[in-house]
Amino acid sequence: MSARVDVRKTYKLYIGGKFPRSESGRSYEVLAAPTGRRATPRFLANAAMGSRKDARDAVVAARKAQPGWAGATAYNRGQVLYRVAEVMEGRRAQLVQDVRDSEGLTPARAEAVVSAAIDRWVWYAGWADKYAQVLGGLNPVAGPYFDISAPEPTGVVAVLAPQASSLLGLVSVVAPVVVSGNTCVVLASEERPLPAIDLAECLATSDVPGGVVNVVTGRTAEVAPWLASHRDVNAIDLTGAADAAGVEWGDLELAAAENLKRVLRPGGSGPEAVEPDFDAVPDLSRLTAFLETKTVWHPKGR
Fold first, then answer.
1. Biggest distance spanned by C-alpha atoms of the chain
2. Which residues in the chain land under pLDDT 70?
3. Cβ(70)–Cβ(62) under 8 Å?
4. How would you label 12-50 residue by residue, b for 16+ Cβ within 10 Å and e otherwise?
5. What is the pLDDT of residue 301?
6. Radius of gyration (C-alpha) of the chain in whole angstroms
7. Neighbours of 140 (CB within 10 A)
8. With contact defined as beta carbons under 8 Å apart, do 48 and 26 qualify?
9. What angle do helix axes 92-103 and 107-126 make, rounded to 10 degrees?
């Protein structure tokens, strides 16, 4: 019997609910993280090298999907996002393997990371129809009026995914963005993009409308500046600027400030950005970072 030739994978982008190739035609090799037993890099797959044009296409898809996603009922968004967790659970074996290869973890630790990522997604999905009561409210005013403040989504959010925490960190920055009705363009971890592609495949086979989450793979230093300066992006999460090669997060913040984006800085202070501890119990701070407060006055009836 002849030796079998491996089917080498070349993963694509995820934009508008579809998996297009990069318009640049470029790709790059994704290698397994070194472990104690294996110091020599091992080829895993090829990933698309996203470009400025791909980022623009992703923003267009996110903008097109945003009104419909924000207009869905909170209960419906929660149910749709919960379905993503169900699909992730069904693809657990692949997620575990890709997290192991990407982060150099033991089988037991990779299993724990995948479980935590699925649980984290469910946790945020559960807030879909609850955060408005917690973050909004009826304001006391001196007059015959109702004064009501309610949180609303910001719009299109660019997300620089964490470089090291390729799945748990990814879920921890994407889920709080979309649960409130925002749509997003995610720039995946440069060296560990496979779990992000796995998540994209879970999204594509769930009920999440195309364009709500768009995933671009490639060089962070190449694509991030275009997302920061893009005038149709309303906010940017700079978490993935920490430890990204050739990236100064302050430059990205400056580019974002020039077009009045909301900016969520990476952890740490000053230029020494660090990746947060995603094992910590989450709170609502990442959700509130991409919400606007709308206040409505209404006369009281007699």
1. 88
2. 1, 36-39, 269-271, 302
3. no
4. bbbbbbebeebeeeebeebbbbeeeeeeeeeebbbbbbb
5. 72
6. 20
7. 6
8. yes
9. 120
